[in-house]
Design a protein that fits this description.
Helix 1 (7-22) crosses helix 10 and helix 5 (125-141) packs parallel to helix 6. Helix 10 links the parallel strand 10 and strand 11. The chain has helices at 7-22, 39-43, 84-88, 95-111, 125-141, 153-163, 190-200, 210-213, 216-226, 238-244, and strands at 32-37, 59-65, 68-74, 80-82, 146-149, 168-172, 181-182, 185-189, 203-207, 229-233, 248-249. The protein has a seven-stranded mixed β-sheet, with helices on both faces. A four-stranded antiparallel β-sheet has the order 3-2-1-4. The termini are far apart. With 256 residues, the chain is an alpha/beta fold. It folds into two domains: 7-111, no CATH class; 125-249, Rossmann fold, CATH 3.40.50. The longest helix is centred in the middle third of the chain and has 17 residues, at 95-111. It is built from ten helices and eleven strands.
């Protein structure tokens, strides 16, 4: 699979710049404060404790633009204070830069009322989210084989309960997960087996963090090549999906 890191993000940035210019925000000095949130600040206290953010592999960063907030998951959180135009000119070559851009994009589109559900759900909602996503897939596509790109334990459990472990494929980039078994499903290496997962699935569920870690373009290309159905889940992808007309599901995401 190719490693085109910025195709979709670059296209979203072109569209965002037009939106910013049309709304007269181009030359406005907008302060963007991005701060890594603690697990509890980000998602509260869900019943299960195996979400990546709780075990310390990822953090949510929060951008604030004109009072509106936007989240992005990343394994490379960094603080930033500057102007909107500074963010719009980032090179987008690193996870840190991409996360900063995406969180800011979410906040800007939230402020303008263009996108919604840019802030992470909390407490019991992450677990309910998994059930709602599984139910939605069942209603829309029936009893299908589902590929999950990016291990989300609540979603994985709900998919297993709804479709059976034998009909689920999961890839992840976290070395500690790869080769282990979760919900009766072996976790494959996303760097090597994403193509296999897509080929063997009817519907592919993609974490929005693929936009941050630079793997999204090759994944979506592969999905199109095999003619598979897909959904992108989570708050990270809110703005990009809106601007690029990509299918997203996020049952409990919040606007503030």
């Amino acid at each position: 699979m190719s490693k085109n890191h910025t195709g979709v993000l670059e296209n979203s940035r072109t569209r965002l710049k037009k939106v910013v210019e049309q709304r007269g925000l181009s030359d406005v000095a907008v302060t963007v404060l991005v701060k890594p949130l603690s697990a509890e600040e980000a998602i509260g206290k869900p019943g299960r404790r195996d979400f990546p953010i709780i075990i310390g592999k990822e953090r949510v960063i929060e951008a604030e633009v004109l009072g509106a907030k936007g989240h992005a998951f990343t394994d490379s959180p960094a603080d930033f204070t500057g102007r909107l135009k500074d963010v719009l000119n980032l090179p987008l070559k690193t996870n840190s830069d991409r996360a900063l851009y995406i969180a800011t994009l979410n906040a800007v589109l939230g402020h303008l009322g263009i996108a919604e559900k840019m802030v992470h759900c909390k407490d019991e909602e992450p677990e309910l989210c998994g059930k709602e996503i599984a139910d939605y897939i069942l209603r829309r596509w029936g009893k299908v084989k589902v590929g999950l790109i990016g291990l989300n334990p609540a979603i994985a459990a709900a998919l297993r309960d709804t479709f059976g472990a034998e009909n689920i494929r999961i890839t992840d980039l976290n070395e500690q997960n790869i080769g282990s078994e979760k919900c009766g499903v072996e976790i494959w290496d996303g760097r090597k087996k994403a193509d296999d997962l897509i080929r063997q699935s009817d519907v592919v569920l993609i974490t929005g963090t693929t936009l941050v870690n630079g793997t999204f373009d090759s994944i979506i290309d592969c999905i199109h090549n095999y003619g598979k159905d897909y959904l992108i889940y989570g708050v990270t992808a809110a703005g990009v999906c809106k601007l690029m007309e990509l299918e997203r599901i996020c049952p409990y995401g919040r606007n503030h």
